[in-house]
Amino acid sequence: MPGLAAMLRALDETALTRLQDAPFEHSPLAAWLPVEELAALVDLPAISADSVEPPSAWSAHIGGRKWQQIVAFAARMPVAADRPLIEWCAGKGHLARTLSRLHGCHVTALEWQASLCAAGRCLAERQGADVALVGQDVMAGDATRWLGGNGHLAALHACGDLHVRLIELAADHAGAVTLAPCCYHRTAAERYRPLSRYARRLTAERGLALARDDLTLAVQETVTAPRGDRRRRARANAWRLGFDALQREVRGIDAYLPVPSLAHGRLPETFAGFCRWAAEQKGLALPARLDAARFEREGQRRLAEVERLELVRHLFRRPLEVWLALDRRMRLEEAGFAVELGTFCARELTPRNLLLRAEAEPRGKSVGRRGFAPRPGQR
Ligand SMILES: C[S@@+](CC[C@H](N)C(=O)[O-])C[C@H]1O[C@@H](n2cnc3c(N)ncnc32)[C@H](O)[C@@H]1O
């Protein structure tokens, strides 16, 4: 695509940040790529909500943003008196407590970490919420014991395999699902296997193959990250690129050398310190007189270039996420659910703001609960 790379390299910082945050708005990439079509693909409706205003005291022990997500999620969750409520991967059961107090009902909250269960039980008891926090590995075979034929499964930000497991079990055992998926790449399988027959057929026909690493693109959005975090991440990336330039020169080999990742907060204080650490990891001897400043500048230059060229990837971030959510929707529809897919909150509150709201159709209405009910025009 002649001219595209040159245009991207010439973008100033303001344009770069604007396009990182809003890839579809007034994008100069539209001269080369189908920006409008991609924007239309991700234009999902906001899921309708009941008016829910829990007292602010209920937010005690919950982070501010998480609390707002819970309120937005709960407002979109239809709770029926005759339907057992189960929260999936509940953490301390913040959502479960809120639902229990809002609707005066019992909620079973499944979570595998014993410490979170214990903390959640204390909170539920203190707040008089009718919540049973149960230590349960949802991937284990016995997870089905919590599901009746009519239960309502709810999960706010259940990662990859955990929410896939929810969907698979719900297809056979649940009456309703309210799910905000996240971290699609957290999966044991290295290659993505679509959940729905429809997507499996489509990907086979079109030769579309997604590796686990490809799926990380769907969640690479830093819109809610505090500015300080963004700055620290940018510095770490520039240092990695600077070290890369250095190792190529020292080894005399023009090839990438993977350096292990460092836990948050463990990055050395200076670029020279980072190079010493990285060299040690790779068993590389650095020259005694190292011009660290030169390589630090080179890292910054390369980062500026990478960030600009990556704007092309950013255009496909949300479309991929929506595609994965559509696959989940189709899986539930094929199992006989009526499903809505839309957003449950602004993306500034969480970029993982997609919600699947599904209700098992009365038997006989669909071609078959647990059977394939194609939507018109989708054969
Ligand atoms: C991303 S957190 C979401 C927690 C909560 N829903 C929220 O929105 O704050 C995912 C939770 O799943 C739990 N989890 C991870 N693997 C699990 C498993 N196999 N069985 C049950 N819970 C699991 C984690 O301990 C964690 O609390």
Report what the structure shows:
With 379 residues, this protein is α/β, with parallel strands linked by helices. The chain has a domain at 56-218 and 315-360: Vaccinia Virus protein VP39 (Rossmann fold), CATH 3.40.50.150. The protein has 13 helices and seven strands. It has a seven-stranded mixed beta sheet, sandwiched between helices. α5 (94-103) links the parallel β1 and β2 (107-111). It is globular and about 70 Å long. The two termini are 35 Å apart. The structure holds S-adenosylmethionine. InterPro entries: Methyltranfer_dom, SAM-dependent_MTases_sf. Pfam families: Methyltransf_32. This is Methyltransferase domain-containing protein. Residues 81-188 form the Methyltransferase domain. Keywords: Methyltransferase, Transferase.
Blueprint (SSEs and pairs):
Blueprint: H1 4-9, H2 13-21, H3 35-41, H4 64-74, E1 85-87, H5 94-103, E2 107-111, H6 114-127, E3 131-135, E4 151-159, H7 160-173, E5 174-182, H8 197-206, H9 212-215, H10 227-251, H11 271-281, H12 292-309, H13 311-334, E6 337-343, E7 354-360
Parallel strand pairs: 1-2, 1-4, 2-3, 4-5
Antiparallel strand pairs: 5-7, 6-7
Helix pairs in contact: 3-13, 4-5, 10-12
The structure holds S-adenosylmethionine.
